[in-house]
Amino acid sequence: MKEIESFAFGNCELVDIELPSSLVKLGYACFSFNRLKRVVFKGKSQLEENGGDSFGCNELTSFRVPLNVKKIGKLAFS
After folding, report:
1. Exposure pattern of 10-21 as b/e (b: 16+ CB <10 Å)?
2. pLDDT value of residue 26
3. What are the C-alpha distances in Å from 32 to residues 44, 66, 68?
4. Using one digit for the tens of pLDDT, what is the confidence trace for 48-71?
5. Residue 44: exposed, middle, or buried by beta-carbon count in 10 A (0-12, 13-18, 19+)?
6. Average pLDDT over residues 13-20
7. Contact yes or no for 56/77 (Cβ under 8 A)
8. What string of H, E and C letters represents the secondary structure of the chain?
């Protein structure tokens, strides 16, 4: 998997997710309006772009940005 599309998992009541290392892009609001407390990137993450509002309106208290990330969109963690 290379990309998670915009709004793909918005408002799904997710609490905990593990994302594959092959992921390169997170689309706009792809995980917004959930109850996420933990997000884990498996292995050496290839993520380069974290879309705007991608994790907005969740319950995250911390988030480890993978080293390859070049772009974080507006309000990604609002």
Report:
1. beeebeebebee
2. 98
3. 24, 19, 22
4. 999 999 999 999 998 999 999 999
5. exposed
6. 96
7. yes
8. CCEECCCCCCCCCCCEEEECCCCCEECCCCCCCCCCCEEEECCCCCCCEECCCCCCCCCCCCCCCCCCCCEECCCCCC
